[in-house]
Amino acid sequence: MGNIKAGDDIFFTATMAEVLEKQGHFEDALMIYKILADTTPWDQSLNLKIERLKGLAERSRKKTATKGN
After folding, report:
1. pLDDT tens per residue across span 30-54
2. pTM of the model
């Protein structure tokens, strides 16, 4: 996925995901939301955020791939 990896000193919170998203780190934000959704399955708002971020992450990947060519 993104730049976050096991052992990183990072807080897996919705606030951290929001900060990463605002900075354009969609893959990392998506990963945090997925972790939160796994640990709090009753919070349906996380699923909405995950679906929205999937689209943003995909567009970001395509944009990056286009720049590389």
Report:
1. 999 999 999 999 999 999 999 999 9
2. 0.76
Amino acid at 42: W
Angle at 64 between CA 62 and CA 69, to 5 degrees: 95
Closest CA to 26 of 45, 64, 43, 68: 64
Give domain limits for the chain. 14-68
Find out whether 12 and 35 touch, Cβ atoms under 8 Å.
yes
Q: Which residue has the tokens 């606030």?
A: 15
What is the rounded radius of gyration, in angstroms, for the C-alpha atoms of the chain?
Answer: 12
Distance CA 66, CA 11 (A): 32
